[in-house]
Amino acid sequence: MSDLQVRVGDRELTATWTDDAPEVREAIASGLPLAGDAERWGDELYFDVPVDVPAENARAAVPVGAVAYWPRGNALCLFWGPTPASEGAEPRAASPVSVVAEIDDVRPLRSLSGGASVAIERE
C-alpha cells in the first residue's frame, strides 16, 4: 500500500515510506504537503523544502525511484535514472542524500523533458 501521492507536472505517482532514515522521514512527513518548482539534473528532479535536518544514513548512490532529502540544499529529490554524477545507469546524487521513500513506478517520469512542478502529500 502506498503512503504518498506524488504529482510531477500532470503525472500522478505514488510512493512508499522507507525505514532508511526515520528521523529525516519524520521531518519530511511533518512538513507535508510539500510543493515546488523542481530543477532537473539528469534523471533527477529536486526542489527546495522548508525542512532543515542533518543527514541520516546518507549516501550518494540511491535506488531507482528514491525520494531523498538533500541536506546541502534543503531539497527533496526524485531519482529515476542516471545523473551527471552516475557511474553507469545507477542514480547518483551530487552529494550524499537521505532516502525517505521510493516511488512505486517511475515509468511516467521517463517522458519528462525538463523541470516540472512537484507536489507531495499523504495518500
UniProtKB/TrEMBL annotation:
InterPro entries: Cyclophilin-like_dom_sf, Cyclophilin_TM1367. It comes from the Archaea. The lineage of its organism: Archaea, Methanobacteriati, Methanobacteriota, Stenosarchaea group, Halobacteria. Pfam families: Cyclophil_like. Transmembrane segments: none annotated. This is Cyclophilin-like fold protein. Residues 4-121 form the Cyclophilin TM1367-like domain. Gene3D superfamilies: 2.40.100.20. It comes from Halorubrum trueperi.
